[in-house]
């Protein structure tokens, strides 16, 4: 386990160690903080070598305070003990700065991809893709048989099976693939350290056919929030997903499948069920498809349109400079998330069309494609600054956009009369329709 100062800093800031008083940064908090570091050309590792308060003198955030950051960085002793234990168990760590971090997660989740993955086994599998197979812990024999058959079929076609590692459908699918000389990835919500040494997985880990990973502390116990949060990683590591069984509006399987359909990460297929009231039938009504009666050539499962709300794989926001990404690709991708939102639903993905503020402004923005991103930006700034002006850094952080792009649009908005610039300190606030009309009449008087 090669742990450099960058990895140490990320671990200290984002991973809990026992029952310490300081709460680690969430994925979204880390995203905000990491973006600020990038904008100020600071590597996380510098926080371990210099004075954090001096280095972060310009940092301001309601929840990620300097005191909290200092408290997290002051856990070196706990980190050292944990690393020693994890290394003895054969675990490895991969952060977003490393080339073998799952590329699919970067593309689909962008700054919502976890800052760190713990794992054991063959880490190369993380970038192989495959078929996600998910379902209930308390599955029927028929459902377990279906999941095993599906996994064996995928393995015979050279595809990895990705699941959650829990008992029931998850474990049945993973073991089915492994026993057919295939490969599998288990995205664990808890107890990775224990799973890494369990007899049922050990031989497959040693043979390189299995990878067990978790974005959570390897020693963490079961937590409903973690179980729900990891669902997105199962889907985003795959090329297509199959739901074996689900209950409407209940449980992790339903929540994960619904989240995937909403975000359009991968095509979703469900096992045919005779019960029209089943969760599977409800998922089909939401955009999933019935799994073919005969096991198909699996590559056909992700051909064509992945779903009504799907965005192109390249859609998203650029990662941070210290979180490796092709520079040319970053430039092309900067507005991918906004592009997808506008192309599919107007402003629906970023601002509800029923929002009175959006309706109030709608007729005042041009609708040509060249202006769509700019118009969407103006709507978001209108919502963000309705009560008080904001600094450019805060606007960029809230919208998850590059500061240089936000600056360009703010200048344009100021010139167009949609935004007013305040000084001491420099802040920006949207100008309402009424204010613009008043200004117009005053100019004519």
Secondary structure blueprint with pairings:
Elements: H1 5-14, H2 27-39, H3 46-49, H4 52-55, H5 66-73, H6 76-88, E1 92-95, H7 103-109, E2 116-121, E3 131-134, H8 141-156, E4 161-163, H9 169-179, E5 184-187, H10 192-196, H11 199-207, E6 210-214, H12 224-236, E7 240-243, H13 251-263, E8 268-270, H14 279-285, E9 289-290, H15 327-333, H16 336-345, H17 356-362, H18 372-384, H19 392-399, H20 403-416, E10 419-422, E11 427-430, H21 433-444
Parallel strand pairs: 3-4, 3-7, 4-5, 5-6, 7-8, 8-9
Antiparallel strand pairs: 1-2, 2-6, 10-11
Radius of gyration: 24 Å
Assign a percent range to the helix content. Answer: 40-55%
Q: What summary fits the major beta sheet?
A: 9 strands, mixed
CATH class of the largest domain: Alpha Beta
Number of structural domains: 3
Write down the overall geometry. globular
The main sheet orders its strands as 1-2-6-5-4-3-7-8-9
Give the rounded overall mean pLDDT: 82
CATH architecture of the largest domain: 3-Layer(aba) Sandwich
Strand content: 5-15%
Distance between the amino and carboxyl termini: 73 Å
Low-pLDDT residue intervals, each spanning 5 or more residues: 304-319, 324-370
The structural class is alpha/beta
Count up the helices.
21
Protein name: DNA-processing protein DprA
Pfam family, one: DNA_processg_A
Family: Belongs to the DprA/Smf family.
Domain Smf/DprA SLOG: 93-291
């Amino acid at each position: 386990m090669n742990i450099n100062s960058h990895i140490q800093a990320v671990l200290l800031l984002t991973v809990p160690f026992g029952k310490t008083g300081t709460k680690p940064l969430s994925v979204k908090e880390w995203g905000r903080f990491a973006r600020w570091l990038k904008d100020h050309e600071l590597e996380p590792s510098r926080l371990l070598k210099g004075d954090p308060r001096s280095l972060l003198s310009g940092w301001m955030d309601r929840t990620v305070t300097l005191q909290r950051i200092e408290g997290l960085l002051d856990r070196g002793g706990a980190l050292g003990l944990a690393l020693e234990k994890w290394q003895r168990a054969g675990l490895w760590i991969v952060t977003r700065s490393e080339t073998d971090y799952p590329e699919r997660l970067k593309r689909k989740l962008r700054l919502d991809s976890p800052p760190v993955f713990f794992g054991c086994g063959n880490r190369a599998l993380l970038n192989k893709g495959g078929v996600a197979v998910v379902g209930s812990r308390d599955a029927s024999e028929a459902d377990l048989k279906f999941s095993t058959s599906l996994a064996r079929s995928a393995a015979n076609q050279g595809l990895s099976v990705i699941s959650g590692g829990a008992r029931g459908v998850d474990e049945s699918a993973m073991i089915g693939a492994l026993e057919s000389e295939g490969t599998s990835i288990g995205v664990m919500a808890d107890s990775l350290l224990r799973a890494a040494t369990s007899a049922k997985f050990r031989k497959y880990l040693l043979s390189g056919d299995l990878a067990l990973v978790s974005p959570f502390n390897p020693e963490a116990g079961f937590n409903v929030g973690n179980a729900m949060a990891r669902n997105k990683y199962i889907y985003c590591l795959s090329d297509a997903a199959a739901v074996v069984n689900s209950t409407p509006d209940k449980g992790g399987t339903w929540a994960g499948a619904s989240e995937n359909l909403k975000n359009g990460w991968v095509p979703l297929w469900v096992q045919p069920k005779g019960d029209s009231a089943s969760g599977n039938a409800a998922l089909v009504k939401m955009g999933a498809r019935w799994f073919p009666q005969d096991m198909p050539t699996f590559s056909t499962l992700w051909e064509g349109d992945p779903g009504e709300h799907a965005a192109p794989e390249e859609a998203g926001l650029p990662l941070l400079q210290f979180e490796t990404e092709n520079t040319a690709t970053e430039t092309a991708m900067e507005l991918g998330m906004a592009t997808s939102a506008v192309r599919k639903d107007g402003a629906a993905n970023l601002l509800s069309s029923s929002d009175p503020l959006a309706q109030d402004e709608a007729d005042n923005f041009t609708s040509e494609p060249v202006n769509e991103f700019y118009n969407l930006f103006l709507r978001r700034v209108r919502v963000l600054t309705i009560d008080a002006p904001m600094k450019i850094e805060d606007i960029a952080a809230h919208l998850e956009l590059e500061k240089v792009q936000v600056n360009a649009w703010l200048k344009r908005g100021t010139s167009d009369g949609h935004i007013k610039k305040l000084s001491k300190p420099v802040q920006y606030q949207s100008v309402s329709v009424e204010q613009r009309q008043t200004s117009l009449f005053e100019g004519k008087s």
